[in-house]
Amino acid sequence: MSESRCYKVMILPGDHIGPEIMNEVLPLFEMLSSKLDVSFQLMERRIGGNCLDLHHCPIQPETLQEAQGCDAILLGSVGGPKWDRGDSENRPETGILRLRRHLNLFANVRPAKVISESQLAFSSLKPERVEGVDIITLRENVGGIYFGPKVEPGPDAMVASDLCEYTREEVARLTRVAATLSLSLGGKEPLAIHSIDKANVMASSRLWRQVVKETIRSEFPQLEPKLSHHLVDSAAMVLAKEPRKLNGILLTENLFGDILSDLTSVIPGSLGLLGSAELSGAPIFQQGSESPRPKGVYQPVSGSAPDIAGKGIANPIGMFESFAMMCRWSLDLTRVADLIDEAIRTTLDRGECTIDAGGNLSTREAGQAIRRFVQDGLSG
Ligand SMILES: NC(=O)C1=CN([C@@H]2O[C@H](COP(=O)(O)OP(=O)(O)OC[C@H]3O[C@@H](n4cnc5c(N)ncnc54)[C@H](O)[C@@H]3O)[C@@H](O)[C@H]2O)C=CC1
Ligand SMILES: CC(C)CC(=O)C(=O)O
Ligand SMILES: [Mg+2]
Does residue 66 share a domain with residue 126? Predict the structure, then answer.
């Protein structure tokens, strides 16, 4: 008889809509424990503005340490106008950056896929442009300009700066993750890898392009025909004009990936639909594998949406999608991940979603619809 698994999961709801959408996925833990041979030890901690308010730091050092011992971390979102001041030491967003750095979560996987007919009508692009779009932004997550040395602007500052630096190894390791995703998710035909940079202007981008090329040529020669290089400005234009041309993996640095992944969200229709995985290595695709899994933080792509917080209309789908990715890549619960993905697709087909994605349900009702589907699937 196989042993029952107990997973340790850290819960970081964050600010504004963070706790609202987190509340919609939390009942899944109890549901899974009652239906499957698993249990969960949940640890709720603070991050972001609410942590600054209570502890005067955006994440506590002991939270970082505890996160190290968890199987996965589920995060809502942080930030808001109340804390929109001060230098990086005193900003909510720094809590997320510290967590990424502490756990070395260098690979940020952000899929944007059109999965339901309802999205064709609702996307801000024409239906014929949107059909079949399936793009994964793979963003470098612990380097580049977000983490380089800064000169903060003082009250009378004449200059401020952020340095964008990349090392060979930082580029090579992310390229290896891109190759794994391409080979594992593409089936017989590996996915295209579109490396995005600004090599016509930036030195760090010229290194990026060189190392991506070399890594694919020397370690994954079979993927050479699948690799292309694009300048980021032109890639942004293609994403808005003919996004299918960029189907596959957008392999890119921290700042470009942050911007482009928000841009990809308009294709399926709303930023509130996208989930993400931040990983310390390539995901393991083999179910039941005993190989150690990479560390993972799972969170929606969006921010804390202060403009809609408290109104009960935030879309919880990005949070469910993040939960599904957690099940798939950190908890070895592939069937649950498939079921949640199916629940998202079905509820979108039925128009059972929040207003940003074309429905008229509240956050709570949209969450209930997905949970009902999952419950039925687990019982069936
Ligand atoms: N990972 C994180 O926690 C992130 C935090 N932020 C922070 O979030 C705060 C707000 O930033 P914004 O620029 O307003 O970006 P945002 O991503 O929070 O919101 C942009 C727009 O998308 C809408 N939106 C976002 N999530 C939604 C959802 N689930 N359902 C329906 N609509 C949704 C918002 O209402 C808003 O109109 C800032 O403090 C920012 O620094 C921003 C990005 C990531
Ligand atoms: C640190 C985050 C607030 C940066 C961001 O916008 C993101 O990761 O999407
Ligand atoms: Mg962002």
Answer: no
Q: What is the ipTM of this complex?
A: 0.99
- Pick from 16, 78, 96, 108 the residue to mutate for probing ligand 2's pocket: most ligand atoms within 8 Å of its CB: 96
In the block, residue with structure tokens 């014929």: 128
Residue 275 lies in a domain: no
Domain that residue 354 falls in: 1-106+280-380
Which tens digit of pLDDT belongs to each residue from 119-149? 998 898 999 999 999 999 999 999 999 999 9
For ligand 2, residues with CB inside 6 Å are: 93, 96-97, 258
How many angstroms separate the CA atoms of 235 and 376, rounded? Answer: 42
Q: Which of 246, 267, 288 is the last residue of a domain?
A: 267
Task: Take atom 29 of ligand 1 and give the residue whose Cα is closest.
Answer: 272
Q: Does the global pTM surpass 0.95? A: yes
Residue 274 lies in a domain: no
- Vertex 231, ends 220 and 300: CA angle to 5°? 80
Q: Which atom of ligand 1 is nearest to the CA of 18?
A: 3
The number of distinct structural domains making up the chain is: 2
State the Cα–Cα distance between residues 105 and 101, nearest whole angstrom: 6
CA separation for the pair 59, 356 (Å, rounded): 31
The answer to whether residues 293 and 153 belong to one domain is: no
Name the domain boundary from 211, 244, 267: 267
Residues 6+ apart with CB under 8 A from 140: 106, 107, 108, 166, 170, 171, 174, 252, 253, 254, 257
